[in-house]
């Protein structure tokens, strides 16, 4: 059930558009499905590199710039999402457009063989994923509310991890059984379009009025100096927390995406694996990531964030160093990849 749509008004005057029951469940399912598809797309480029190298006649190192192209698009899409969702009334419109453009990129990728067109398609796909990533997180909080969003947020990010685990296996299955990766990407495109349906049916949630007022820097003339100083102190603390969190995510997500994309090439070049085994190696890494996200749910209820972050960073250093040990037994890199994930 949806509140009547408000007429276009300034940001501070917007009120929250709420959904309940079946409507809220359908919208949440659209977000979760979109994140599953993001996981599939994000984890697909690394396992696809050997096929793209064969198709374009280039070496794996020559194709590594495709990761840079995708990352540039992802950053730009994320920045765009951070601006646009506060300024549109139909908040699902950017998500639907991002889903459909990402689907178009997946559908056209198998037909491309020139490096510039590949880079353009993958960069566009990255921009759409960045937009979906930002929008999915923000809109889910607005939809569920801050007091009940946690399990839904965990489910959405678990769906991302499951998609990332499935992606290398799905590509390997398509190459083995169908002799082409094209059907896998056509299926991903169809799933992205399907996830757009529940989102296109609803206008989308809006920010709570109190959040909009806080972003607008509101405050009446009767606010006392002491209250203003306390509010300014809280804003500074929030900004410091946001900056610290962003810096942490810069390194953590950067390492996650880099190793996830590099795992297939690392398996082929450094560990002398076959293409199929190298894709399985990448899937093991993403499987470790999924297991870690599931384990974080009970851990968060018992341990402080500092303890969890410290243990995660120490474990990442140990497992990443273990993967590079010379003359290690064959099982060691697999265990290190899972542990690093």
Question: Quick gist of this model?
Answer:
The protein is mainly alpha-helical. The protein is built from 12 helices and no strands.
Query: Element order, helices and strands?
Result: HHHHHHHHHHHH
Beta-strand content estimate: under 5%
Major sheet attributes: none
The general outline is globular
The residue fraction in helices comes out at over 70%
Count of alpha/pi helices: 12
User: Structural class per helix/strand content?
Assistant: mainly alpha
How would you state the average pLDDT, rounded? 80
Distance between the termini: 40 Å
Q: How many beta-strand segments?
A: 0
Taking pLDDT < 50 over at least 5 consecutive residues as the criterion, the unreliable ranges are 5-14
Query: Compute the gyration radius: what is it?
Result: 22 Å
């Amino acid at each position: 059930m949806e509140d009547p749509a408000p007429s276009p008004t300034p940001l501070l005057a917007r009120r929250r558009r709420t959904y309940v029951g079946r409507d809220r469940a359908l919208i949440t399912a659209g977000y979760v499905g979109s994140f599953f598809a993001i996981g599939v797309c994000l984890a697909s480029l690394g396992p696809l590199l050997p096929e793209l190298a064969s198709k374009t006649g280039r070496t794996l190192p020559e194709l590594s710039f495709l990761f840079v192209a995708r990352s540039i698009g992802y950053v730009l899409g994320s920045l765009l999402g951070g601006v646009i969702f506060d300024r549109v009334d139909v908040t699902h419109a950017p998500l639907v457009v991002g889903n459909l453009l990402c689907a178009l990129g997946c559908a056209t990728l198998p037909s491309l063989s020139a490096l510039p067109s590949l880079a353009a398609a993958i960069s566009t796909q990255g921009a759409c994923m960045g937009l979906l990533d930002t929008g999915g997180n923000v809109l889910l909080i607005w939809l569920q509310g801050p007091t009940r969003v946690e399990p839904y947020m965990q489910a959405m990010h678990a769906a991302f991890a499951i998609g990332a685990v499935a992606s290398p296996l799905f590509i390997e299955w398509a190459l083995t059984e169908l002799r082409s990766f094209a059907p896998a990407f056509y299926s991903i495109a169809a799933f992205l379009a399907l996830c757009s349906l529940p989102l296109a049916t609803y206008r989308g949630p809006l920010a709570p009025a109190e959040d909009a007022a806080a972003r607008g820097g509101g405050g009446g003339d009767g606010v006392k100096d002491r209250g203003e100083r306390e509010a300014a102190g809280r804003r500074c603390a929030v900004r410091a927390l946001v900056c610290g969190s962003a810096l942490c995510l810069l390194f953590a997500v950067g390492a996650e995406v880099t190793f996830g994309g590099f795992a297939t090439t690392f398996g082929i070049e450094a560990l002398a694996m076959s293409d199929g085994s190298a894709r399985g190696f990448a899937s093991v890494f993403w499987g470790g990531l999924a297991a870690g996200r599931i384990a974080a749910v009970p851990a968060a209820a018992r341990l402080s964030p500092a303890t969890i972050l410290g243990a995660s960073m120490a474990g990442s250093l140990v497992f990443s160093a273990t993967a590079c040990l010379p003359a290690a037994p064959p099982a060691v890199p697999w265990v290190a990849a899972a542990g690093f994930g």
